[in-house]
């Protein structure tokens, strides 16, 4: 579905994407995980055939975006990071007008609009103004609009940014159903739980480069431990205390507000910390996540 070799994107002297290789297979959910500024959105704009490639080779659906941009865009669905809904139209007309852009007949686009409103659970809001929708409803409508042309490939750029947890989970359910129906998804996100929930495979990007690739489970297994013990001490104490516990796990990461001890037995680490006379203000034992993978590979957290 997507094949990139040495893909680059420059803006003047600034190189946002620095020569990456990517393969996306039919029917999978593929993710680009990384912080803001990692190059995810620049990559997505090239894949969407709306931003020219600065270097390397890119094929979308077997086509070259430099010469077949219109044909590619006709087979894509795009859910941009910002909602671009038409506030002058009601919910249903946003779908109807957009479907007509693709040359669908009135009968076909009417049928498709009804199907999609039901799919994103907005049938009762069909005549409502866009401004009257919640943030979660607007995102679902944007996704419905991106599906109006029955795309072969659906691009989702930070699909749940700004949504509350309940709205995020509703959206995850809709995306999971699309994947089950055979739609190929390409998702950018800086939420590690979102990447773990939705993606079959992903790449971790940082500063325009791919620093790791694989399934979420494989990346965690390869680059982290089974568990992490989080220790919070007083403000400004973490750097000094790290040396006193560095032998208790595979490694210790010092963050401004806590220490992370990577281990296969978090409870044992907590016991040993207390045996040494140290008294954390708060403790937590959790499983490793993609956030820990990113921290291990870059020395930074995803929200830096």
Automatic annotation (TrEMBL):
Belongs to the ABC transporter superfamily. InterPro entries: AAA+_ATPase, ABC_transporter-like_ATP-bd, ABC_transporter-like_CS, ABC_transporter_ATP-binding, P-loop_NTPase. It holds the Pfam family ABC_tran. It is found in: Cell membrane. It is a peripheral membrane protein. This is ABC transporter ATP-binding protein. Keywords: Antibiotic resistance, ATP-binding, Cell membrane, Membrane, Nucleotide-binding, Translocase, Transport. Residues 2-232 form the ABC transporter domain. GO terms for cellular component: plasma membrane. GO terms for biological process: response to antibiotic. GO terms for molecular function: ATP binding; ATP hydrolysis activity. It comes from the Bacteria.
